[in-house]
Amino acid sequence: xxSLRYIGSLPLTIFLVACSTTPYDCNCPAPSIxxxxxxxxxxxxxxxxxxxxxxxxxxxxxxxxxxxxxxxxVDRVPEHLLLVGNAEYIVIEPExxxxxxxxxxxxxxxxxxxEEFQHYERDGESWIRFVIVNPVSRQRVEFSRPLKRIxxxxxxxxxxxxxxxxxxxxxxxxxxxxxxxNLADRSNFRFPALLGRNYLGGSAVVDASRSYILSAGE
Length: 218
Fold this sequence. Notes:
This protein has 218 residues and is mainly β. The protein has one helix spanning 197-200; strands at residues 4-6, 15-17, 32-37, 82-84, 87-93, 97-103, 110-113, 116-122, 125-133, 140-146, 149-155, 161-172, 175-184, 193-195, 204-207. It has a single domain (4-42, 59-207), classed as Cathepsin D, subunit A, domain 1 (Beta Barrel). Helix content is 2%, strand content 42%. Strand 8 and strand 9 form a beta hairpin.
């Protein structure tokens, strides 16, 4: 039996945390949002092999209920939803930066790894300049985006961490969404980006037993 997770448009519970200061030297929004992050830290390995593509047919099962973790068969996936694996390629627009992303239905928010970031003021508003390294060419790609807020990320077994949040336009297959993404040091993670429920909600069905479904023909 292969379990697929259906990502419905469910309300997400958030907790506002009042704080008078932030560690950033800028006019940042004071409130933080506590968001769970349950991704497992993986130690990078040299020449680590990508997960193999399992193209075997999926056993037929019917959808049990329209909730977050619904067991469905591939032939019952609604046409307006993407079938994705536990890892896929994404493209950040308009810079056209292509990255591998962990697809994680257990994460409330999405995240992208940056090497450095710097706050600055533009037209009286807080902006952030950050650098993402292209994993293929190793080229440093610089981004500038308005700072939306500071999020407090609750990490499993670790102290919570404050991260800047920006909006990015991300393409996954034929889906294109502008979402909030927190900027983090992901050097200890296998994937430079993570897509959580704020992107997957209402857009995708996840087959956790497979990876790179959308790029299988490449």
